Structure formats: structure tokens, C-alpha cells
Amino acid sequence: MDKPKVVVTRKWPAEVEATLTALYDVQLNEKDIPMSADQLKYALQSADALLPTVTDQITADILGVAGKRARIIGNFGVGYNNIAITAAKAEGLVVTNTPHVLTDCTADIAMLLLLMSARRASEGDRLVRQQQWTGWRPTHMLGQKVTGKTLGLIGFGRIAQAMARKAHHGFGMKIMFYNPSLPSQAIVDELQAVRCETVEDVLTESHFVSLHCPGGEATRHLINEQRLKLMRPSAHLINTARGDVVDSNALIKALKEGWIAGAGLDVFEGEPHINPGFLGLDNVALLPHLGSATEETRIAMGNRVLDNIAAFFAGQEPGDRVV
Ligand code: DGY
């Protein structure tokens, strides 16, 4: 029997590409140049599986292309708001993602940004590099203490819980969270976490607020001007979720006018383009979407896609099926 044909939209870790090459008739993307809408349409027409990632916009228009051969989309990423899910379902396509394997690394980046923002690490690094550091002094670059403070989480899924564990067990932080559904009582008890009824309660009470909700229309600009004004002037906002959860212009205003003390961002509205308003601000730490960017995690994400498509082609239910 012929090997199934699969199209990979971006460069993947070498060892995962080697496995793909051994198992499938695979089209890799050696040059790592994003594919155009027409190339994505052609991939759906010519291959059995399309393996995109979180930066490929798989729109309803692309999914609706006539004469599709593909029956599965194996997304490399836990978030799948890059895929028009309703359209995929209507087209009878199976869609999978890569949960679990990036939980700890993404939570590490959230904790890193929290520490960077609280202790003014980006600003300090710039000062040293620009040779403007004139020496230690009692009032130089004072930030906020992290240990023992309150961390508020918006969304309390796997990544939020992993961050809460690091913050609570490692830094003695008190945990509050808002989540539409009830999490397991065991994790709430372990972290002595307080469940808030509203997003507003978390924003008002926390010294640090970290966002962990999915992207998409339902959460677009969840953090807006009105909500930023509820935060403490000494508070910090951390976003490792999706850029469009935060209204960038409102956040820039908040950082400039001192409604909050700082922010740490790994994701941006319209990334990789960054709202230029952030670039001149000292009280924001900026990272280029590094949440899952470790060798171990990216290999594990690739292997997760491999498991999903292997199950699908064997006529079984893929473990990480989302539609
Ligand atoms: C995801 O997987 O959704 C992240 O944003 C990238 O790892």
C-alpha cells in the first residue's frame, strides 16, 4: 500500500522530520518560509494530511477548497485558534492538537516574565549593555518582591495550574483564579487556591495577573482599558496565552500612565508585528513567543502530531482530536 502523503507547513525538529520521512510520503519545508493560502489549498487537495502550526491561518476559505484529498489536520501546537474549527467540522475534517507536552515549559516562561517584570530585568539588561550603569546604590532600580505575593490566574487549565504550582510551592505565592468551570478540588486544595466569581475580582485583588485563556472571538480584548484600571498600580500583567486577549493600545496607555507597574508579554496582537507603542517602554518585558521553545518540548510536540496521524491512518481515534 502507498504511504499516506503529508504536508508539513514549517521546519520541524530534525529527529521528528526523520521519523516523518521514514513513515510517510512527506513534503517538508526546508526553507521554513510560511506557505501562502494557495499553497495551503493545494496541500489540502494533494495530500492526505496537512500538518500546520499556530501561525498558519487555516481559514474557512482555505478549508472550503474544492477537491480535497486531506482528511486530517494535525496542528503542531496546543492552541488551534489558527484553524476555522466550525468550517473544518463542516468539511468533515479531523483536527488534532498537541496538549500536555508544552505545559511546564510554557508555565516556566510565564514565571520568567513575572520575575522579569517584577524585578525590572529587561530594563537592567539594557542599562548594562548600553554602559549606563554607574554602580550599586540603595535606591537604584527598585522593583517589587515576588515571594509571598498574590498571583491571579485568568483561566485555570493545565498551564495555569503548572504556573500556580511553581509560584505557590517555589515562591510561597497565594493563588487566586477565575475559570468558567470548576477545576478539580484536589488541585484547589493542594494550592490553597481561591476561586473568584469574576475576572474583575482577580484583577482587583492580585499583585500579579497571568492570562491563561484560549484565544479567539470569545476572549478578544478581555483585558481592556476598563479592566486594566481595576488593577493595583503596583501590579504586573503577564500574557503567554494569545495576543488578542489584551487590547494592546489600552495596555500601552496603562503602562505609560502608571495604572499598573509592568507587564511581561510572550504573545502579541498581530504578531510578529509588535505595536510600536511597546518598544519605547521600560516597564514591559517582551519575548518572541517562546512559551514552548525548548528542544525537548518541540520534539515532543512533533511526536504528538505523529501519534495523532498514525492513529488516524490506522483507523483509530487520534488521542488529541479537537473536532
Ligand atoms: C501553542 O502551542 O499554542 C503555543 O502558542 C506555541 O507552542
Q: Indicate the mean pLDDT.
A: 98
Please report the total strand number as a whole number.
12
Multimerization status: single chain
**What is the number of helical segments per DSSP (H or I, 4+ residues)?**
13
Radius of gyration: 21 Å
Strand order, sheet with most strands: 8-7-6-9-10-11-12
Cα-to-Cα separation, first versus last residue: 28 Å
What is the CATH top level name of the largest domain? Alpha Beta
CATH topology of the largest domain: Rossmann fold
Set out the fold topology.
Elements: E1 5-8, H1 14-23, E2 25-27, H2 37-46, E3 49-51, H3 60-63, E4 72-74, H4 85-90, E5 94-96, H5 103-118, H6 121-129, E6 150-154, H7 158-171, E7 174-178, H8 185-190, E8 194-195, H9 199-205, E9 208-211, H10 225-228, E10 236-239, H11 248-257, E11 262-265, H12 276-279, E12 284-286, H13 295-313
Parallel strand pairs: 1-2, 1-3, 3-4, 4-5, 6-7, 6-9, 7-8, 9-10, 10-11, 11-12
Helix pairs in contact: 1-13, 5-7
The structure holds (2R)-2,3-dihydroxypropanoic acid.
Give me a quick take on this structure.
With 323 residues, the chain is an alpha/beta fold.
Structure description:
This protein has 323 residues and is an alpha/beta fold. The chain folds into 2 domains: 114 residues, NAD(P)-binding Rossmann-like Domain (Rossmann fold, 3-Layer(aba) Sandwich); 184 residues, NAD(P)-binding Rossmann-like Domain (Rossmann fold, 3-Layer(aba) Sandwich), CATH 3.40.50.720. Helices cover 37% and strands 13% of the residues. A 7-stranded parallel sheet has the order 8-7-6-9-10-11-12, sandwiched between helices. Helix 1 packs parallel to helix 13 and helix 5 packs across helix 7. The protein is globular. It starts with a strand and ends in a 10-residue tail after the last helix. The model has no long low-confidence stretch (mean pLDDT 98). (2R)-2,3-dihydroxypropanoic acid (DGY) binds next to loops.
